[in-house]
Design a protein that fits this description.
binds zinc ion, single chain
């Protein structure tokens, strides 16, 4: 008897329990989860095909939401733009979702517009809708930072990062979020962002296409019931994400940030989940990420309404790889020879393409630079090429200055074969995309007739380079894009 008791005691120890937890299979996925993803095109709102949209693009959609939606003006941004509070449902469990606190992070706003479509349709999900709207009351603040969205910049028009204003509350946008959180006393909070596209999902060949976090509410990162429930719910969402972007789900840095909204809202007793959309190959305007956001929002709401999250432990959350800064670049060219002081040596070259807004921040062009060089074995490229034995040399600049019209008629491959990567142009319309023509367009040099080479192969340089084998140019990199020349 005593022996048996000992065994029972031993087996309930923490280490043994967590081993048992890991061995347990995950609870079954809701049959609806995959259907949300499949059916998304039916709810996808037209007119939001790119990330750079503004309040005036979504405001008519919000104002037109029919009953039982209620649409209230929550307040005004610093520059006097409208911020809306949309709600629907009559249930006792309150859920608050806010998007685009950072003006240039619009993926979740698109997904919320699609979710509003879903909630007002009549179709095969009617019984689910009834469950959602009778068990939950949903509150939304789509586009919390319309001034930032207008200029497609992170901060508000006071130059303040709203996500560092949860305590001081100097921004009207931050005060609106705080007030609605306090008024609704939300049981659940979804803090919806986009993250740097260059984060890896752990040390791996995979980008963190979506990252999640149950933010810490204190420096010691304790897990109370509130934060624990957020972790459980992340397990539910991760299960669906892994089907579509396997190994590309990361865990955001969980260091406590005392000024951030997510961390404080968790502290104030709302089970808070951060969702960050990152980079996904072949999805420059985040339309696939929008679809995934839509699908996991609904999966999460169903799991809250049906209390399915309670079947989960923390194992799935804790097993997610941490975001790895510097893990990704747009293009990595591996094992090429470069020369300095007449000495050749082997490097990998990593390029990043910075987005530059134009056309009233409705469009962008890329301006690339060499972001890292050396042994980059721990870095991945969305595009990669290994060119062992090739020599990377700076391209040359075409002598003479021409107009935009003439430049647009150039045969860029013929120029690249001659070793010319850069062309000097006299006119510089706002819409000029630096490398749309396959060569880099630059302003005239001091001596346009004899302009010399593009910048050397240095960190931070624009890096128009030729990749040569036996003196023959076979590839070029122009503004961060690899071009096959031969
Ligand atoms: Zn953000």
């Amino acid at each position: 008897m005593q022996k048996l008791l000992l065994i029972v005691l031993f087996c309930s120890c923490f280490a043994c329990q967590s081993r048992t937890q890991q061995a347990e299979p995950e609870p079954a996925m809701s049959p609806n989860a995959e259907r949300f993803y499949e059916k998304h095109p039916e709810y996808r709102v037209a007119g939001l095909e790119t990330r750079r949209f503004k309040l005036e693009d979504i405001e008519p959609m919000i104002k037109a939401l029919p009953a039982p939606f209620t649409v209230k003006l929550a307040g005004k941004s610093f520059q006097n733009r409208n911020i809306y509070h949309v709600s629907i449902g009559t249930g006792p469990v309150k859920v608050l979702m806010w998007s685009q606190m950072h003006g240039d992070e619009s993926t979740a706003t698109m997904a919320l517009m699609d979710l509003f479509q879903f909630l007002q349709k009549k179709d095969e999900f009617d019984s689910l809708r009834q469950v959602l709207l009778s068990k939950l009351t949903l509150h939304f603040i789509p586009m919390l930072n319309p001034d930032g969205a207008n200029r497609f910049t992170r901060r508000n028009m006071q130059g303040i990062d709203i996500n560092r204003d949860a305590m001081r509350l100097q921004t009207p946008e931050g005060r609106i979020l705080k007030r609605i959180r306090d008024e609704t006393k939300a049981d659940w909070g979804f803090n919806l962002h986009d993250q740097n596209i260059y984060l890896g999902a752990g040390v791996s060949p995979y980008p963190a296409s979506i990252s999640v976090l149950a933010p810490a509410y204190n420096y010691t990162k304790d897990i109370n019931e509130t934060r624990g429930d957020a972790m459980r719910l992340i397990g539910v969402m991760n299960q669906l994400l892994q089907k579509h972007i396997p190994k590309q789900v990361g865990r955001y840095d969980d260091a406590f940030e005392p000024r951030a909204f997510g961390d404080n809202i968790q502290k104030w007793g709302t089970r808070t989940i951060l969702i960050e959309s990152g980079g996904l190959k072949g999805d420059p305007e985040n339309q696939m990420l929008r679809r995934l956001n839509f699908s996991i929002f609904l999966t999460a709401l169903e799991a809250i309404a049906m209390e399915k999250y309670k079947e989960w432990n923390y194992t799935a959350y804790e097993g997610l790889p941490e975001n790895q800064p510097g893990g990704f670049h747009d293009l990595v060219v591996r094992k090429v020879q470069v020369m300095r002081n007449d000495k050749w040596y082997k490097v990998d070259l990593a390029f990043r393409r910075e987005e530059v807004n134009y056309d009233n921040s409705r469009k962008f062009f890329y301006r690339a630079n060499i972001a890292e060089m050396g042994d980059l074995m721990n870095t991945n490229g969305y595009d990669e090429i290994e060119l062992e034995g090739y020599q990377a040399v700076p391209g040359s600049i075409k002598p003479g200055v021409i107009g935009w019209e003439e430049a647009s008629k150039l045969d860029h491959l013929a120029l690249l074969r001659q070793g010319i990567t850069d062309v000097q142009v006299s006119t510089w319309p706002e819409s000029l995309e630096l490398s749309k023509l396959g060569v880099l367009l630059i302003r005239p040099r001091p001596n346009p007739a004899n302009p010399g080479s593009s910048t050397a192969i240095n960190l931070g340089s624009g890096g128009s380079i030729l990749l040569q084998k036996d003196g023959k140019t076979e590839y070029a990199v122009v503004n961060g894009f690899l071009i096959k020349v031969q």
